[in-house]
Amino acid sequence: MSVPAGSRVSAVLFDLDGTLVDTAPDFTAVLHQMCADQGVAPPSDSAILATVSSGARALVELAFQLAPDADGFDTLHQALLNAYMAQLQHTHSVLFPGMNKLLSELEDRHIPWGVVTNKPERFSVPLLQKLNLDTRCSVLICPDHVSQTKPHPEPLLLACNRLACEPHLAIYVGDHPRDIEAGNAAGMHTITAAYGYLPSAPPIDDWGACYISKSVVDMHRYLSARFTAT
Fold first, then answer.
1. CB 141 within 8 A of CB 158
2. Which residue in 15, 22, 26, 179 is the catalytic one?
């Protein structure tokens, strides 16, 4: 789906982890401490990066080589969530380079931007607050707000509804195949954040995005060409 020529982009929506914000440093710190506490070697930083977007359970599987139904899995999963919540109070997460400039241009052009994430609200809100993004973000959609999460389009359609925006005039940016699948199913223009926490498979060219952005600067240039005067 492409924003029609001459049409004004009505909204830009972002996935959170690995797309809008570099949150990997917090997860890396938490996993390294947990592994040290358990007396096991931590996974490589590159492995953590490739797993972050798949959620906390996937990180537990990666770090401790446990299946979700194994004894002790739920205890480790809860421990990770608790440690991550504590880590958010001293977060190392930051906007990706160039992202603040892009958000500022959207705001200057009165184009609302928001976040649609599979990260629960209890983690998403404190993170946005710590980064002073909560008052800038026009909409935040988390799993708490919908009956079906990405790759289902429901969260993106809800975001568009709250922004009074037609989906075909909105753009969704994500770093995981489910983001692109959800955006395409919602009828939105989709951008793959190739600078994000990409999974090892499938190949990025197979995701079906309208555009693959190698950096935030690249994405900013691409989007600016599609903005019309307000």
1. yes
2. 15
Q: Are strands 21-22 and 94-95 parallel, antiparallel or unpaired?
A: antiparallel
142's tokens: 């988390």
Mean pLDDT of the chain: 94
What's the pLDDT band for 230 if we cut at 50, 70, 90? Answer: very low
From 17, 22, 26, 179, the catalytic residue: 17
- What's the rounded mean pLDDT across residues 81-90? 97
Range 171-197 average pLDDT? 97
Long-range contacts of range 139-145, CB-CB < 8 Å, 24 or more positions apart? 139/13, 139/112, 139/114, 139/115, 139/163, 140/114, 140/115, 141/114, 141/115, 141/116, 141/117, 142/117, 142/118, 143/118, 143/119, 144/120, 145/121
The span from the CA of 24 to the CA of 216, in Å, is 17
Question: CB–CB of 151/112 below 8 Å?
Answer: no
Copy the structure tokens of residue 93.
């997460």
Give the model's pLDDT for residue 229. Answer: 40
Please tell me the distance from the alpha carbon of residue 72 to that of residue 156, in angstroms, as a whole number. 35
- Residue 151 makes CB contacts below 8 A (sequence gap 6+) with 177, 178, 179, 181, 182, 185
User: Would residue 26 show up in a list of annotated catalytic residues for this protein?
Assistant: no
15 catalytic? Reply is yes
- Rounded distance between C-alpha atoms, residue 141 and residue 147, angstroms: 12
Cβ-Cβ contacts under 8 Å for 54 (sequence gap 6 or more): 176, 199
Structure-block tokens of residue 187: 């009828």
